[in-house]
Design a protein that fits this description.
The chain is mainly alpha-helical and 365 residues long. The chain has a 3-stranded antiparallel sheet with strand order 1-2-3, covered by helices on one side.
Length: 365
């Protein structure tokens, strides 16, 4: 069915106003993710005595599900987006409290809720909702001087960070705190306060090192150069070279723990080469650059805070994943948006993409 410019339905209006460049970039990442998980997950499934296609089928299901999620959120107007995200954030806070008591503990972390045959990670879904919530209260603070938006912002980040650290999930906490700091900076917080926040980060890492065993072990292994995963990841990059070994021909992925999730970038390097890795980086760069460029064309503070926060969170998470895969930082167990296996991660990325597309549609702000 053809969509004409005279068609005034919601789908038609969405099609003619959505940012096609961003939309295409997200869909390309989804397709890449399907092929990479297909290549990296079979040996993992066989090692735990389940069907070799188990992870591939589940990832394909969530990838297909992410498409209507993206479209749903991208069709919303700004008011609907605010209301849904505020409600979503409050629900996620309740779920984060619930997961501390009833969540499933995996590898020393209690982050997941079991729903039937699926496990759900509330912290992943919370990220885009919190960014919109924080953009909303900071905008109210700047527009209505009697509204203590800064206090609400600080209180909310302290609550969210505490719930994440109790799981514990230091990597997610770092991503959210840095995104929150960027939004505060854009909102006009004094530079001295921003500098204090920056100086507080080393203190946070020292405390995390002293109080969380998995953080101390990862940092110590990184400093000593004894990280097994990183060794295999670097061998994947070396093996792939410029053009890669070919689809399904990678060898080091078979000995790389969590190759389908935490080290999917290394799998891409071995099987498809450095050129594909550069293309993946370019797509993420395009999404981030395009989003920030659009913020320069308006003075709407909520739009600027929301779009900048979402783009920064997506880019920062991707940067952490790639940096840990290439031995630039200790491994963080961070997924690569749309590419890594994980239903919660894919749906959270889809919500982020949908909100970005909604806010950047023509004549919506």
């Amino acid at each position: 069915m053809l969509i004409t410019r005279s068609d005034r339905s919601n789908i038609a209006l969405w099609w003619w106003t959505v940012d096609r460049l961003l939309l295409t970039s997200f869909f390309i990442l989804i397709v890449f993710g399907i092929f990479l998980v297909m290549a990296s997950s079979q040996h993992i499934a066989e090692s735990i005595n389940i069907s070799s296609n188990y992870f591939t089928i589940r990832h394909f299901f969530f990838s297909l599900l992410s498409i209507p999620v993206i479209i749903f959120f991208s069709i919303l107007n700004t008011r609907q987006t605010k209301l849904l995200c505020i409600l979503g954030f409050l629900i996620c806070i309740c779920l984060l409290l619930f997961v501390l008591f009833e969540g499933e503990k995996i590898k020393g972390a209690q982050r997941w809720l079991n729903i039937g045959n699926f496990s759900f990670q509330p912290s992943e879904i919370c990220k885009p909702f919190y960014i919109i919530f924080n953009a909303w209260i900071l905008t109210l603070w700047m527009e209505k001087k009697d509204f203590p938006g800064w206090a609400w912002s600080i209180g909310s980040i302290l609550l969210l960070s505490a719930l994440l650290l109790l799981q514990p999930d230091v990597g997610m906490t770092i991503v959210i705190i840095f995104t929150w700091g960027l939004q505060l900076f854009i909102a006009g917080l004094p530079v001295i306060v921003i500098l204090c926040l920056i100086l507080a980060f080393p203190i946070f890492m020292i405390l995390a090192y002293r109080h969380f065993d998995h953080v101390r072990i990862r940092i110590d292994n990184f400093i000593d150069g004894n990280t097994y995963q990183i060794t295999k990841s670097l061998q994947s990059f070396e093996s792939g070279g410029l053009w890669g070994k070919g689809p399904g021909e990678g060898l080091y992925k078979k000995t790389l723990p969590d190759a389908h999730s935490d080290f999917i970038f290394a799998v891409a390097a071995e099987e498809y080469g450095v050129l594909i890795c550069c293309l993946i980086i370019a797509i993420y760069g395009l999404i981030i650059g395009r989003s920030f460029l659009l913020t320069l064309k308006t003075e709407n503070l909520f739009f600027i805070l929301a779009v900048s926060g979402l783009a920064f969170q997506l880019g920062f998470q991707s940067l952490i994943h790639m940096a840990s895969n290439t031995d630039l930082i200790p491994p963080k167990g961070m997924t690569l948006p749309f590419l890594s296996y994980g239903g919660s991660s894919i749906i959270a990325s889809a919500i982020t993409a949908g909100i970005l597309l909604s806010l950047t549609r023509k004549k919506t702000f």
